[in-house]
Amino acid sequence: MDSRKLRARVERLTDLLAAPDVVAQVREVANREQHSAEQLADAIMADPALAVRVLRVVNSGFFNFPQPITTISHALVMLGTDVVKALVLTAPVFDLFSRVKGLWLHSLAVARASGALAEALGYRDPEELSLAGLLHDVGKAVLADEAPLAVRQVQSLVQQQKMPISAAEQQVLGFTHADVGVWLLQRWNVPVKLTAPVGGHHQLSTVREYADRAAIVHVADVLARAKAIGDPGDQLLPAIEAEAWEALRLTMDHAATAFDALDALIDELAQGPKEPVWTERRVS
Amino acid sequence: MPAVRIDQIQVGQVLERPVTNASGIVLMRSGTALTPALIERLRDLGFTELPIRALPTQGADGEAAAVEARFRGHEHNPLMMQLREMLVRRSAEAAGG
Question: A-side interface with B, Cβ within 8 Å?
Answer without folding.
Answer: 98, 101-102, 104-105, 223, 225-230, 237, 239-240, 242, 245, 252, 255-256, 259, 263, 266, 269-270, 272-273
